[in-house]
Amino acid sequence: EQHVRVVDQRQREQQPLALAARELARVAVEELTERAERDQGVELQALLHEAVRVNAPYLEAHQLQVVVEFPEQPALFFGDRARLLQAVSSLIDHAVRWSPAGGTVTIELRPVLEGWQVAVAHQIAASQLELDRAFQSLRQLGAEAESYLGLGFHLVKEIVELHYGRFWVEGTPGKDSRLIVNLPSMEHQSGQTGHR
């Protein structure tokens, strides 16, 4: 019982630290966003191409073909380029891990109502039991996801939400998966920061 009280006390003591760390990260993203606005923003096409290049050895080792579907017009986003690259790389890493050898990973970028949507789509090679657990975890993005899939998707979710975006998963167990990130336009970002 005393041990339980000590654990509870430590958890309560750590909560302010976690909140402070999140606030520092949010402020850092806002500062980088303001700097990016002055520097004409992050070009998402170039960022996604770089994510593919960074993961190219991993993709080639698994004999995976990459298909990119981008719009012709420049897709600009104002935020932390390094963190966004980290998030997209995590999605590609997940696609490689779950795809069958010789499969295809499709990276899509398209305009949506609130800004831009990035999607990483891939086929799936896994047992039905593994897929049931994975899809449940991905939808919850909670403690089970952390224990089963690691911290990659928690990192993606954290980075996307710091940029006032959304991250979710669609797909059919045993067939395919789509990892989707919606990033707000500059106007939507300004609206979010103004309502804090």
What are the salient characteristics of this protein?
disordered N terminus, 5-stranded mixed β-sheet, two-stranded antiparallel ribbon, 7 helices
Topology:
Elements: H1 2-38, E1 42-43, H2 44-61, E2 65-69, E3 76-77, H3 81-98, E4 104-112, E5 115-123, H4 128-140, H5 143-149, H6 152-162, E6 166-172, E7 176-184, H7 186-194
Helix pairs in contact: 2-3, 3-6, 4-5
User: Largest beta sheet, briefly?
Assistant: 5 strands, mixed
Number of strands: 7
Instruction: Give the strand line-up of the largest sheet.
Output: 2-4-5-7-6
Number of helices: 7
Structural class: alpha+beta
The helix/strand order is HEHEEHEEHHHEEH
End-to-end separation in angstroms reads 41 Å
Could you give a quick summary of the protein structure above?
This protein has 196 residues and is of the alpha+beta class. It is built from seven helices and seven strands; from the N terminus they run αβαββαββαααββα.
Provide an overview of this structure.
By secondary structure, the protein is of the alpha+beta class. Strand 6 (166-172) and strand 7 (176-184) form a beta hairpin. Helix 2 (44-61) packs parallel to helix 3 (81-98). The strands form 2 sheets. Strands 2-4-5-7-6 form a 5-stranded mixed sheet. It has a two-stranded antiparallel sheet with strand order 1-3. The protein has 7 helices and 7 strands. Helices cover 58% and strands 22% of the residues.
